[in-house]
Specification:
Layout: H1 2-14, H2 19-26, H3 30-37, H4 46-55, E1 59-60, H5 66-70, E2 76-77
Length: 78
């Protein structure tokens, strides 16, 4: 899952978005975003991850199997 966090951070920074901006777009706390970027997903559900990805304009490949999402194997497209 750390790879997903690194990708979220990389895309956020590439777009010049602050944690505060993404927090407002995804409607989640900055501390939760920081946890995700560090790869700590144990307290974060898939809906929050998806909202954050959309706030960074990242979209998962169409309809990945649930097992892939849970194992952090989803490929993200910008």
């Amino acid at each position: 899952m750390k790879e997903i966090g690194e990708r979220l951070k990389s895309e956020r920074e590439k777009q010049g978005l602050s944690l505060k901006t993404v927090s407002q777009r995804a409607r989640i706390s900055v501390s939760m975003l920081e946890s995700m970027e560090e790869g700590h997903f144990e307290r974060i559900g898939i809906p929050i991850l998806m909202a954050t990805a959309c706030a960074c304009e990242l979209h998962p490949d169409p309809a990945p199997p649930r097992e892939q999402v849970q194992n952090g194997e989803v490929k993200w497209m910008a």
